[in-house]
């Protein structure tokens, strides 16, 4: 079982602190819900409303709304109007909160369908962070349709959503791919579109099942990855895996101390991290899950 880890993980993209680059996290707010909280307003709600207006001015109106303590896609909604979001907040139980996150409206697609990447991190009692080399890809079995926000199977890749569809095995077995299979599929798509042969990168880390997610100050945290040369081999620091590792290192350099505040000697946390790529190849961390 997993639940969304919101505390300490949600962040506004484009922080005013120049030392904290959060451009790889979609703009995200944790807002108190319920009629009373909505009537009271508050700083978090005011900041979200300002963000909604700012993005709407650029014709970017879609936000994804998530409960803070549910999993498997339960309770997730996608809206494109402030009125809809306010009504949804109002209808939630008192003393609850919701995560409001800017939706990636132009995601990278696989055969016209959405996908995301689930990676795993182990945090040790001493604060060490180990990023597993094997991740997997979750795909949608429904074509992406930005005009229909009510079609959950088009927008959510959760297995609990996809497994009920007749198309669950149509494209990929159980709507799953390995990282290497993703790279092959995307390179084929890029070659078909541009008639440019793929040029895989050659740099890879040493063999093993997990690698310390240490910070790499020589490389930017966020990155854009070209489809025609996207290297998705597990452990390849020059490719997608390395970009995810650098995001993990930056995340836990800020949030790591929150995971074991009492410094318990035998406390380990196994976390699932969900990543997405947009149409330009920019990598985003969209969610952190607590594996229980």
Automatic annotation (TrEMBL):
**Stored InterPro entries:** TTL/TTLL_fam
Know the name of this protein? Answer: Tubulin-tyrosine ligase
Stretches with biased composition (Low complexity):
1-16
- The organism's superkingdom is given as Eukaryota
Q: Where is this region: Disordered?
A: 1-20, 190-218
């Amino acid at each position: 079982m997993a639940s969304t880890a919101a505390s300490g993980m949600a962040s506004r993209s484009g922080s005013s602190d120049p030392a904290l680059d959060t451009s790889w996290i979609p703009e995200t707010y944790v807002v108190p819900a319920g009629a009373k909280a909505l009537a009271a307003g508050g700083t978090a709600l005011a900041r979200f409303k300002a963000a909604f207006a700012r993005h709407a001015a650029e014709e970017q109106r879609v936000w994804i709304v998530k409960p803070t303590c549910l999993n498997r896609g339960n309770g997730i909604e996608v809206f494109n109007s402030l009125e809809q979001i306010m009504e949804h907040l109002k209808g939630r139980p008192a003393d609850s909160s919701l995560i409001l996150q800017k939706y990636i409206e132009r995601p990278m697609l696989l055969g016209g369908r959405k996908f995301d990447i689930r990676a795993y991190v182990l945090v040790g009692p001493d604060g060490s962070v180990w990023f597993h080399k094997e991740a997997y890809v979750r795909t949608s079995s429904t074509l992406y349709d930005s005009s229909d926000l009510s079609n959950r199977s088009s927008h959510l890749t959760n297995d609990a959503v996809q497994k009920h569809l007749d198309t669950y095995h149509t494209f990929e077995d159980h709507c799953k791919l390995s990282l290497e299979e993703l790279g092959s599929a995307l390179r084929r798509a890029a070659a078909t579109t541009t008639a440019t042969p793929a040029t895989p990168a050659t740099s890879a880390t040493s063999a093993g099942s997990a690698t310390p997610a240490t910070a790499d100050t020589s490389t930017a945290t966020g990155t854009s990855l070209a489809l025609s040369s996207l290297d998705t081999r597990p452990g390849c620091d020059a490719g997608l895996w390395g970009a995810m590792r650098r995001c993990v290192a930056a995340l836990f350099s800020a949030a790591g101390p929150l995971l074991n505040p009492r410094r318990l000697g035998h406390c380990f946390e196994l976390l699932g991290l969900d990543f997405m790529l947009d149409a330009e190849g920019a990598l985003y961390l969209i969610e952190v899950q607590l594996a229980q």
